[in-house]
């Protein structure tokens, strides 16, 4: 399902590192339950943009709205902290079990134990990592780790999921497994922005394309629907 209801809108988003301007984005609208790929050459600012949207990096913004409410990005608003989840290209995990890593964010939100177990089991099954439930993240392959990271993000039911190059360190079956999970993320109503160079992710049907080029953002839409 793809909608045209705005989830997040930004006007005039500017980022510089010291004297060096990185980008100046006139307008960005992310719609609810919609998927986007963010492309651009190395160093164009893809990760930086995702990190700004996740509140991990500061930027100047003229106006921002999240779920129709005016917000400021600095300090990062509470409404977005709970609704926006960022998944790093090389996810960092606690050295406890896979199941504990996935459940952690839920306990931090004060959920009941039964609900935590129910959601964690569902997320592990979705990501195909149930058999790894007692494993320590250190022992996982890159693909397994990325799937655990996706399960850990999905379980929080974010409104906006930011994936930073989810397949960049993967190949073969591991990469295909991760690509296969992406369309199903939309079914739970999340919007997704994926920074990537992966042609198969870019070509996923229904995914809208955002391209950072020379400090500007260009938008383009693929024709078919994703879900
Ligand atoms: N903390 C920082 N301080 C100064 N410059 C930075 C910082 N973080 C990123 N940069 C610079 O900003 C530019 C954009 O980096 P960013 O990682 O956002 O690009 P990217 O499009 O994600 O690149 P890639 O495709 O290689 O991952 C790069 O030139 C980088 O060196």
TrEMBL record:
Q: Does the keyword Ribonucleoprotein apply?
A: no
| ABC transporter domain span | 8-227
Identify the domain of life.
Bacteria
Cite the SMART domains for this sequence: AAA (SM00382)
MF annotations from Gene Ontology: ATP binding; ATP hydrolysis activity; transmembrane transporter activity
Cellular component aspect of the GO annotation = plasma membrane
Q: What is this protein called?
A: ATP-binding cassette domain-containing protein
